[in-house]
Amino acid sequence: MKLLNFTIIKLTCFLILGILISYLFPISIRLSIYITVGLLVILSIFFLMARKQFVKTIWFGIAAYILMIFIGVLTTSFHNQKNFSNHYSKFISVEKDSLETVTFRIREVLKPGNYYDKYVIDILKINDKMVSGKSLLNIQKDTTQSALKVDDIVIGNIAFQNLIHPLNPHQFDYKKYLEKKYIYHQIFTVNTSLLKISSDRHTLFGMADNIREHINLKLEPYHFKPDELAIINALLLGQRQDISEEVYTSYTNAGAIHILAVSGLHVGIILLILTFVFKPIERLKHGKLIKAILLVLCLWCFALIAGLSASVTRAVTMFSIVAIAMNLKRPTNVYNTLAISMFVILLFKPLFLFDVGFQLSYLAVFAIVAIDPMLYNLWRPKNWFLDKYWHTLTVTVSAQFGIIPVSLFYFHQFPGLFFISNLVIIPFLGLILGLGILVILLAAINILPNFFAEIYGYIISGMNGFVGWVSKQEAFLLKDIAFGLVYVFTFYLGIIALVKFLKKRSFSNLKLLLVSVICIQCAFIYTHYKNTSNEFIVFHKSRYSLLGNSVNHSLLVAHDFDSLTASKNKIIKDYTVGNHIKTIKKDTLKSIYILNDKTLLVVDSLGVYNIKSFQPDYVLLRQSPKINLNRLIDSIKPKNIIADGSNYKSYIKQWEAICEKKKLPFHQTSKKGAFIIDY
């Protein structure tokens, strides 16, 4: 591939390989340093030898690539504070009722849940020991207390808890998500257990939050509707915490969610606006250099205010390189620029590699650069208006080619009308952002006219209304699409092969395309036969029982849900999508299940279990039956006892103690997750 002729792209690929190796097979910092230093010495020797001989040798290149792999390993290990001796996890206990005196600083305010306000915190001290590390803080909602802010320093007697894996198959793994952000524990507490000891804003994150807070305070008198203000915060300040679930879902279903995530589109428009504003500086001596420095500073100030998310960091890094090259009259290659920005970001934030926003933004840009020229050249309208809309459509379609496989893997849905929402909004996004910046600046200096604020509010409200209308065309929204990791790789192979063939119709490219088609077919066959085993699942659902029996790609479901719980339940949907199951049938809860040579007895609140000459392999206790478990075990001699989420916690605790005494396996779904029987 011609792309691999660029050295920076090769180095970035090997850096990514090193990050993946370090993430999957953790290596100690000390060993990583020794290996990296050793490889650096070897590389220096090869360089000196090659320099003296005036001959290029393959060994220098091999040493450079291996060194880059271990730089990836080292940077991943180095950024994980858990690898250092002062990480707070080495000074705490996660046993129940184990309280510690903890001093911490609020690092980030997250979207609140139904019952808790959520924060990411930096741990400063455990008792009197100075420590480091991040944790998740959950404070029970209290309308009488004001919420904490970024940089607030708080002390309290609190207990750490381990993060838990999802309790049901194929649910979103919040534990793994937080671990990729170097968060390994969580805290549940109430306001009365905490004491704020400082509110000084002295970190960059605190100052950025102060600026956002000041802007919102200045916008308050203009009576923007909650949804309008939430969209303004998302578009211009990178904060999406206040967007309502309804509005967020509308943008997702309409294929316009990228408009709310500050990324390359927003940063590119802001760069164009700033380039125009700073144009007069070019007349000064060294004006172009001064202009480039100002552009980069402004872009990074914006990135900081927007929260330094993966997508905005990628966009600002890339456009900083573009701004410097553009103002110093240096030629740039888009692929080189993308690779340099990726290389720099991953050196400082290696686990951004696993961030969905980071992946989608880079894939979209790569696809636009590779595919858009080809699509745009299919038709060149002479009318300026038609030309702009045609180019918007080709860019949108190109981006979708880049993100569809990853998007289906993570979100399992495809908005069929994505091009309509993009064709309407994107041409006016520059105007919306420009007016938004003007609104914020005028409000900050107290000269924003009311009529101007009202007009901008109507524009945002109109955009929300249009997106809401598009999202309601449910016939065009494809949901619950099963799409595994094997599909992602094979479909990307197919997309690359198709693009190469359409660009150059050669025999070698045709062979690659046909091979990719075979790979996609093999992926479908592999997935089909991989999921042929039968399994019986006792799902975890608090206060209810939910059983599933998967046989021959169909699922038989039995539960005791009320109508409201049944309508909101996503457990079955997650399971069927994850296992590529399309047929779902309903059944009633039974007392006995025969699973080939295995049997399961269900004991409910009636407590009936005396069945002559019947010794089940498994006993499921549901709805808190008032039974003597010792007598049950002695009489029917089960091999496993299962307690689902419908039982009282006090009962489960007693049953667990009895099973432990009798050395009988006991499975509590609220702790260990769903119980699965393969048969």
Automatic annotation (TrEMBL):
Signal peptide span: none
Main location: membrane
Residues of the ComEC/Rec2-related protein domain: 235-502
Domain of life where this protein originates: Bacteria
Keyword vocabulary terms for this entry: Cell membrane, Membrane, Transmembrane, Transmembrane helix
Recorded coiled-coil stretches: none
Bilayer topology: Multi-pass membrane protein
NCBIfam families according to UniProt: ComEC_N-term
Record's protein name: ComEC/Rec2 family competence protein
Species classification: Bacteria, Pseudomonadati, Bacteroidota, Flavobacteriia, Flavobacteriales
